[in-house]
Amino acid sequence: MKIVSWNVNGIRAAVKKDFVSELQKSSANIYCIQETKAQDEEVSKALSDIKNFHINSNSAEKKGYSGVAIISDQKPLEISKDIGIEEHDMEGRVITTAFDKFYLINVYVPNSGADLKRLDYRSKWDKDFASYLSKLRKNKPIIVTGDFNVAHHEIDLARPKSNYNKTSGYTQTEIDGMDGLLNVGLIDSFRHLHPEKVQYSFWSVRFGARAKNVGWRLDYFLVDERLMKNISKAEIHDQIMGSDHCPISLELSF
To answer: Among 71, 84, 85, 226, which residue's Cβ finds the most Cβ atoms within 10 Å?
Structure first.
């Protein structure tokens, strides 16, 4: 089984930049996208050229903001949206699908924002999301993917010293939040397979950051430790353009 995850920075814009052909070329069984920036019906319309897949999305109350979707060749056994906490559930950040051997959770974690204005909210989000995952995995193993808006370790961003505790995505609060998610019983699959590899999944659109590879690894597949033996590949596809993020993939054998 192959799963791909990508923050597309607007699904309608992505479709105009060959998103559908990238999906088809990937040969993925499941495709998770974040930041659709569209309502559910708009997501369905934008992806209407995709045949023989099931499309499930969760959009924010605010139009043109946030949003996640899961595109799968199998029909999920069940689908749920959000995490059951009102203050978090207006922004369309989580969709969970159940398959035979695992739950797949697609998440677009809140950004702490300019001047870290949402850092306190982000801290609460991380704790509440960890609690949601902890309860879910009591039923069966989980795989959590998406844009986590944090570089977990120094190796995960190009300029750690100048950004530490100053820039959204690399504060100790956010790092601790990621630790909390992993402590639920999850493994960072890419880092598990590639402990020393320097590779990024996001680049600022300013200052030619992508051309210079001044990037961040913000996108992850966190895999239940009970499924570690099933992981065969975890990769970052930084050659694929079309967004300020690039796709990542996970391959599993059952």
So the answer is: 71
